[in-house]
Amino acid sequence: MVLVDPRLPDIEAGLALIAGMGRAWPSMRVVLTGWSDVEGHAQLAPTETAYVSKSATPEQFAEAIVHACCPA
Known about the structure:
The protein is an alpha/beta fold. Helix content is 36%, strand content 21%.
């Protein structure tokens, strides 16, 4: 599981990073974070992704991570 803001340093680099990790580790789960929904999110398939806002509580971060690792 990886927690990443794909906009840092920019969206293209973030998406390339996530896509590369997805190719290297196909079962990897990703939790995206940012100030709003992530532009280009659909480009991340087939990597499993979830989203949590940077303004989320610690409990919400933990919930997103647990859900990414152990989907219901």
